[in-house]
Amino acid sequence: MTGPLPPEVSLSALGPRTRIGAGGQGTVYALAEDPRWVYKEYASRFVDDVDVTTLNRFVRLAAEAGPDADALLGLAAWPTAIVRKQGVVHGFLMPRVPDRFRVRIQLPGGPDTVLAQVQYLLNSDGYLLDRGLRIDNRMRLELLRDTAEALTLLHRLGVCVGDLSPNNLLFSLDARPRCYFIDCDAMRLDGDSVLAQVETPEWHVPDADAEELATPATDAFKFGLLAVRLFAGDQQTRDPDAARRRLHRELRALAGRSLDPAPERRPAPEQWLDALDRSIRRTPPTPPAEPVAPSTGQEPYRREPTRRNASRQNPVRRLVPGPGAAVRQPVGWGWGLAVAVMAAVMVLVGLINADDDPSGTAPSARQNLPTTRWWDVTRPSPYPGLPTTIPGLVPPTGVSGADPRYPGLSLPTYPDLGRPPLLLCPLTDVRVGRGLNPTSARTKAAVPAVDSFICSINNETSPLDDERGTQATRAATLMKHGPFDAATIIGIRTAGDGPQVNVVFEPAGDGSSSGCWRSRLTLAEDGDGLRVSALSAPARVSCP
């Protein structure tokens, strides 16, 4: 098949074809008789769901866009002809990805030429050097500007990308870097979609349950995510300050506005163009800085060090939980009194030590807490013994066992659990990251679930039903690097097995100097709320 394409062709007219790729919706084939085009064939389960009328409109747009038609076909693998088999639409033809949007990189199995997906660029300098990718800040700015210009054209034509993600966006490393969109049939044209809209994990809008998908506002949000992650070298951050070292202040401000949960407040990509031009003019081409230690693998969540939160700068730790933090109820009045007495003694000892400190700097409340579980009898206590009797204190019924260091206090034991209950949880600060909607029902339900999970980890008790196998090992990894006095929810999405939240855990005290830990927590219904039912393998990351 050669010559101009008609709007519809028969599958038999395509001639010999070779499979060159596959995705969630179908398979892509190269045409032996006309290498200009490739054929995307929908998987059989999607054939009946294809909106043929909308797909026809996609094809007509490329033919009727006038002066913009060439620009459209130059920046996207746009549908150019419908393919039918025995009258049924099975797929469409689109331009083959130009060679300049392919790149040769070093992979663990050896060098290979692959599609130049932007996901490769959202990593640290060490990762880029390991892959043989040389890119500096000038190239990042020019790529971002070209993407903003492409989105401006698409929006003018009534097209919204929708699933704007580093998997569907390619880059070139020409003298002036360019972008190129693939999977264009997943876009939305004048409000209509060929198939149901989807979002790539970690590239979802703040509240996908409430906000309409594939609009200029969602494109603006994801463009802001792209800007932050491209300059932060981080595939999951939503914090513009993570790109502080590379991204100019004016662009960080635009990114912050783009990530606003309120769709009407987000600037359109077109509003970035002037600021990007100014940044390009004052950024000469320079090679990327050599990393201190080259990376050996992908670092999906890495931030530059930022100022620690106020609770750590202040020598006295704040005792007010952050917004949305769960408030724990005491375990019975009598036992609550015992816990209160112990806490008062701890604070008193801290004040005495502060008065004796010649530097005049009082240690934080976290520093004054024991570094081990307070029922662990194998290590000496840093505190004086409590009185053997406390007037008015009556241990709970059925109490057995005691802490040898505190003979006046007895601990309840539960044979079915084999460990003391969670009697005392250090105060934690569960924060909602930038770009997420803290007032959505999904976020409000996630905060106490994360807080309860940290409570279990800090008390070295398994937060999961299954205390053996892979999940137990992952929980043990967090316990090993705890306790944690703060956590930030950086992403929330709805999955088939329940809501999932990405959380960065911040170790207490000096532990934060060695980095934080990130994990994806899967939540499940538990009575009136949510609880953590599973977690991904914790990974060390830079603290927010």
From TrEMBL:
Say which species the protein is native to: Micromonospora cathayae
Gene3D superfamilies in the record, alphabetically? Transferase(Phosphotransferase) domain 1
Q: Where is this region: Disordered?
A: 280-324
Tell me the ranges covered by the Protein kinase domain, including all copies.
14-280
Its name, as the record gives it, is Protein kinase domain-containing protein
